[in-house]
């Protein structure tokens, strides 16, 4: 019985690998489930199997939120660079860096949430980073506002498997101050909504 | 300087000479952080009050260097700082608008952490550890095909194009919009002055009540401080925790009032 | 001693795999040798190692004459076909439709110009539209960049003789916001060029 389940997983894991390889782009876990006719749980389990299988190979799974992509391990940068151009190269300005860092640790964030942390109007810098393909608008809006997060291209340029590998990720992501600031904003927005409802 | 008025009423804060030479700063919190770090102070309500004057001075001198769309953000922080400093001297002064949200010290500490983290991220960005996805070249080798979208009509295309143009509007209009935000301070001063002409004196809370939002209340407060500083008005408080009475002082000065912030 | 040789082989095999994966095209054995700084014999040996390593995965080396390429195993052809078919024949996403529309009303545009109007990095979308025969690269480049426009087949599909027949063509094409945002970009580019010249 156990044997069979594990066999099934290997099957799904191979399906996933062939999809990620042939598609050559990020896929959501949900879409992978549809394509493999498997549950989200099975896909996640298969991804763990895959990670073990890829252990000794120069490839790895890179995740961002619910999306996953197959990429080369950062140790092979020198050799791969000979055949593929690194489109992301170039310096980051301080405001860019600051915005990317906040979104990497705390994203997806709405623009007001980001501005609350930066203390400064950020629509131009967001637009700039979206033009460079370092930030993208996510599908899930919050409080009627679009949310923003860093892209796979950014994660790739940092050579990370996922943003959780950033130093002090847990503490900065879940830091009480961030949580406080955002909670207060949410309460404010809710209060405002209520007033508007009342006035209608 | 905005803060001087309060200092002259009996400074409990050590005066800090403005010796810090113009450095590059990216936003109001960045400037504030640099000022606090320059004084080798921990971030606290008191340390922020100490650098308040320097901050205001910088904003005044650096106006040309501050992007117009950011100026309003500098003003909001300036108002918060002046308010914090005023409160240390005048404990009964409470303004809900400026009390709202996280306090400035908390906000700045958080910002400081992200600035530190961004240096680490920059190190990672510049180090040569990059991973690559598979190039999407192979797909191109497939037979060239023609796969048009099924339901796209020219009417739908017109709507899509209009939506794109609408989305561009705030990008084009942003600097103007920001300037308008700054301009409202001037409007506010004008309306306070008008009120003084017709009422001789009034309570500041009545002004705050009329404000539509937090931003406008901040602006009202800033406008009042400016009028006090320019000696156009006098403010008085009969008792601790009482409302602030605003009365005309030298209203005729209003005519040649030079607004240093606008 | 044997140990060391075998380790070296694994190293070369991983180098080869990373090149074949990221490059996504056939490489000659000679070229692989150059890129990995190894002899033809070592490359051939490493390829045998690779074949063993890939045994349980859905990927394999495909050789044709002296060229070698990384491909999915034939057993996975159905699932891979579906991924490709999805991309080719699925309904176009809103961002894709938007890109197509901008190129119809305002084309030919360079990629930076298109991105300036959309506010979003657009290389993947452009590639996808080209793949579907809806967009093509034009011969006339601008500012050293290729320009893109919708294909004649697409214009015909809309039932138009020319793009000028699109509703409100003149007013939308020449809308001041579009003109302004492109002008702004041009000025920035010129300013940048000047700074670079000055610093040389």
Written overview of the protein:
The complex is a heterotrimer, with two copies of chain A (200 residues) and one copy of chain B (262 residues). Chain A is an alpha+beta fold and 200 residues long. Helices cover 57% and strands 15% of the residues of chain A. Chain A has ten helices and six strands, in the order H-E-H-H-E-E-H-H-E-H-H-E-E-H-H-H. In chain A, the strands form two sheets. In chain A, strands 1-3-2 form a three-stranded antiparallel sheet, with helices on both faces. In chain A, a hairpin with a 2-residue loop joins strand 5 (135-142) and strand 6 (145-150). Chain A is globular, with a radius of gyration of 20 Å. The N and C termini of chain A lie far apart (61 Å). In chain A, 40% of the residues are buried. With 262 residues, chain B is mainly alpha-helical. Chain B has helices at 4-8, 28-38, 45-61, 68-89, 96-99, 104-126, 154-199, 204-210, 214-229; strands at residues 201-203, 233-236, 245-248. Chain B has a three-stranded antiparallel sheet with strand order 1-3-2. In chain B, strand 2 (233-236) and strand 3 form a beta hairpin. Chain B is flat and about 80 Å long. The two termini of chain B are 14 Å apart. Chains A and B meet through strand 3, helix 4, helix 5, helix 6 and helix 7 of A and helix 2, helix 4, helix 6 and helix 7 of B.
What are the key terms here?
heterotrimer, A: 200 residues, alpha+beta, 3-stranded antiparallel beta sheet, 10 helices, disordered N terminus, B: 262 residues, mainly alpha, 9 helices, disordered C terminus
Order of helices and strands of chain A: HEHHEEHHEHHEEHHH
Q: Quote the beta fraction of chain B.
A: under 5%
Shape of chain A: globular
- The average pLDDT score of chain A comes to 85
Q: What structural class do you assign from the helix and strand content of chain B? A: mainly alpha
Radius of gyration of chain A: 20 Å
The counted number of beta strands of chain B is 3
**SS field, number of helical segments of chain B:** 9
Helix content of chain A: 55-70%
Largest sheet composition of chain B: 3 strands, antiparallel
Give the low-pLDDT segments of chain B.
1-22, 257-262
The averaged pLDDT of chain B comes out at: 72
N-to-C terminal Cα separation of chain B, in Å? 14 Å
Order of secondary-structure elements of chain B: HHHHHHHEHHEE
Q: Classify the beta-strand content of chain A into a percent band.
A: 15-25%
Sheet having the most strands of chain A:
3 strands, antiparallel
How many helical stretches of chain A?
10
Which two protein chains have the largest interface (Cβ within 8 Å of the partner's Cβ), and how many residues from each? A-B, 57 and 45 residues
Identify the strand order in the major beta sheet of chain A. Answer: 1-3-2
Shape of chain B: flat
| Helix/strand structural class of chain A | alpha+beta
